[in-house]
Amino acid sequence: MADPERRRRRRETLAELAELRRAEEDAAARAAERARRAAEAARARAAQARRRLEELRRARVERRARRRRELARGCAGRAELADVEDRVARARVEAARTALREAEAAAGEAARAAAGAAEVLLRAVAARKAAEATVERAEAEETEQCESQAEGEREDAATARVPGPAPPSRSRS
Length: 173
Prior knowledge:
rod-shaped
C-alpha cells in the first residue's frame, strides 16, 4: 500500500505548490499595483514641475518687460532692481528645469518598475496556472490508475468465479 501513500503525498505536495504559486501571484499583483501608483505619482510630480517651470518662465518674461519699460522711462534704480529680480528669476527657472528633469527621470524609472512588476505578475500567473494544471493532471492520473486497478480487480474476480472447462466425463457404458 506504499503506492497510494506515495500518490497521496505527491498530490498534497502539488497542491501545496499550487497554493504557493497563488500566494506569489497575489504578492506580485500587490507589487504591480504599488509600482503603478508610484509611477502615477511620479507622473503627477513631473506635471507639477512642468507647470511650475512654465509659471516661472512667464513671470520672468513679465519682469523683463517691466525692466525694459523702466529703462525706457529712464528710472535706472528701478531698472537695476528689475535686473536683480531677473537674475533671481533666471536662477529659479534653472532650478525648476533641474527639478523637472529629476521628476521626469523618476517618472521614467517608476514606469520601468511598474512594467517590471507587471512582467513578474504575468510570470506568477503562468506559474500558478502550470502548478494547477500539474495538480489536475496528477489527480486525473490517479483517478485513471484507480479505475484501471478496480477494473483489473473486477476482471480477476470474474475470472475466479467462472468455472473452467468441465473435466471430461467418464461414463461407464
